[in-house]
Amino acid sequence: MNADGETGWTPSVFAEDRPQDMEELRRLRSEPGLVVVDRLADQVRGLREVLPRPESDLLDEPARWVHYPWHRTVVRVLGPNSFRRLRLDRNRNKVTSAEQDRLGEVTVGIVGLSVGFSVAQALVLDGVCGELRLADFDPIELSNLNRLPASLVDLGTNKAVVAARRLAELDPYLPLSVWPEGVGPETISEFVDGLDIVVDECDSLDVKVALRAEAARRAVPLVMETSDRGLIDVERFDVQPGRPFHGLLGEIDPERLAALSGREKIPYALRLLGPERISARMAASLLEVEQTLATWPQLGSEVMLGGATVAAVVRRLGLGQPLNSGRGRVDVEACLDALALPADPGNRPGADAPPPPESDDPIDRVLHAASRAPSGGNSQPWSVTAGGGTLEIGIADDFVPTAIDIHARGSYVALGAALQNARIAAAAHRILGAVRVLERDAGEPPRKVLATMQFSDGTDSVLAAQYESMLARGTNRQPGDGSPLSDAETAALHQAAEQEGGRIRIVTGADRLAEAAELLAESDRIRYLTPVLRREMLSELRWPDSEDIDSGIDVRTLGMDDAERTMLDLALRNDVLDQLGEWDLGHGLGRLTGMRVRSSSALVAVFAAGPRPADYVRAGMAAESVWICAHSLGLAVQPASPVFLYAEDDTDLVRLSEVRFGALGKLQSTLDDAFDRPADLRFALLLRVARARPERIRSARRSDRVRKHP
C-alpha cells in the first residue's frame, strides 16, 4: 500500500545521521502546509531523568524525523532504542525491562478492529508486543464512533488502516502490517503464519471457526474478548489440541455458518455466551434484534475494558507465565454491586500504656527496673527472679532466639541491660550486693541462670544517681537535626562505658554517617527481602489494638510520618516483597533507616570482649550505661544494629540468607572498617544517637518475665 496515499498507514522515518535522509527531509519541509513538531529537547531531558541513568549509547543515539502524511506533519523524536526506553519507562515495574525485551519479540494478529482497535491500542501502550497484524474489511461509519477511538475525519476509511495510523502515531518504530480486505478462508493460513498469538474480535462466526482451526493446526494460542460482563476466552492450542470454543458449538461447518442471517446466528452466539450468564440488558437487547435494534449493542467503556483484559492475557502468554485454557469474566457491574467500606486499618493513634504501679518494696522496684531494659524487638528474653536474698537473671524457658540473634548473643546483651537496671535500682534503694556473671564456654548449652545479684545493704553513688534517668530511658526513632556531639558529650559516653568495663567507638561527621547510612539501609533491604528475616521482623510489630501490645514494637514508636506509615502497609505485604526480591530491587526499603542515620549526631558501637555469653552480658551492661547516659544528656537513642551484627563466619551468614550471604559478608567488612573494629573485640550493639523531639509513647512490658518468691 502506498504510504502517502489516501489509504496509507506507514510513516516515513528519516535518520539525522544519514545524509540522504536529511536531503529527503529538506525536500519534504519545502512543501507548503507541512507542520513541523520539534520537542526533542523535552524528550532528551526526560531520558536523562530516567532511573537508573541510561548508558551513553542511548543518550547519544541520533534522533529521527517522522513524517505522517495523513496529517501532513513531521515530528522529531528520539532514536528507536532511546525512544522505547523513555516511552515504556513508566510501565516499569509492572512490566520489567527484561520482560519488555522479551515481549518485544512477540507477534500478535488481531482480526476485527472494533473491539480489536482497543486491544491493539492497549498492547502498544503496554509495550507487550513487537509486531502487529491488523485485519478488518469494514470502513469506519458514524455508528462505530460509540466504541472506536477514531474521529469524524476517519469516516469512510478502513478500520484497520485507521488503527494502524493511530498506533504509528504512538510508536513510529513498531512493525505493522494491515489486511484491509480482512481475512477469509483463502487468506487465514497466510495471516496466522508466523504469529505467536491470535486475537479474535471479528463478528463473523464462520471466520471465528476457521481462525480456530488454523490456530489449532499451527499450535498458536487464541484469545477472544466479548464485551458483555467482561467475558474472556483463552484457547491454548499451543499446549493442547483442545476443541474450538471449548466444545460449546460441537462440530460445526464454517460454510453453513456463513450462509446464515444475523438472526439465524443468534442461537450459536447464545450457545457461545451462555444465555444464563449474559447481562439482563444484553439478553433483552438480543430479543429486539431486527425488531427495534439493527444489531446487538456494545459500549465503548466495555470495549476498552476488553482491550485491557486481552493485553493482560497477551502479556502472560508472551512471558510464558501460567495461564490455562478456559473462560472467565472481568465483571465491572458485579464489582460495583459488591462495594463495601474498607476495613479499619487499625492504625489509630493511642495513648501511652501507663507504667505498672510501683510497690514501696525495694525488691519490687528492682524487678520493675529490670523489666524496663531494652531488648531486640522488645522481645524481653529474660527470666528475672528475686527470692532468698538473691536476684537471678537468665533466658526465659519459652524464649526462642530469632535468626539474627545468632547463638542468642543479642539476648545475652539484653540480659546484661536488665542486670544493669537492677543494679542501679538496688543502689538507689540501698540493697545492692555482690554481682556475678556466670562464665561458660560458647558451645555449652544455655543455663537457666546467667547472672546473680545478692541483696544486701550496700549502695553505689554513681549507679544510684542514674535511677531516674534509667526509668525514663526509652527508644526514640524520631529524625534528628544532624548537629554534632560536643566534646563533653562524647567524653561522657566513653566514661559511661568504661565505668562498666566496656569499650565503645563513635562515628561522627556527615560523610562517615552517610556511608554508614548506606550500609544499614542495605542491611534493612536484605532483611525485608529474605523471607525468614522478614517474617521475624514483621512478627515484632504491634498495633495499638493488638492483644499482645506488652511485647514487640509499637508501630506508633517507629518515628514515621503519614506517608511513611502508608508505605509501611505495602512493605508488610509478602507478595510485594517477594516480587522485589525476584527483581533484586527494593532499595527504598532501607530509605527510612538511611534517612534516620544521616540525621544523627553519631553512631555508637558497643563491643564485647570475647565470644562467650558472659562477654555479651557484660557488654549489655555497658550498653545500657551508655544509653542511660545519652538519655540524661537529652539525646535520643535508637538501636541500629544490622542483621549480621552477631555473625562470626560464613556459616552464620549463610544461615541468615543463602541467597545474599555474600552481600552480607561485604557489608560486615565495611562495618568493621567504619568503626575500625579491633580484632579481639566483637560488636554487641550499635546505637544511633541524635538530637530529636521526645518520643511520647513508651513500650509496654510483660508481667510474667519478672517474679518474686518469698
From TrEMBL:
Residues 341-351 have a biased composition (Low complexity). Coiled coil: none annotated. Residues 341-363 are annotated as: Disordered. Residues 89-224 form the THIF-type NAD/FAD binding fold domain. Pfam families: ThiF. NCBIfam families: PRK07877.1. PANTHER family: THIF PROTEIN, TRNA THREONYLCARBAMOYLADENOSINE DEHYDRATASE. This is Rv1355c family protein. It comes from Rhodococcus indonesiensis.
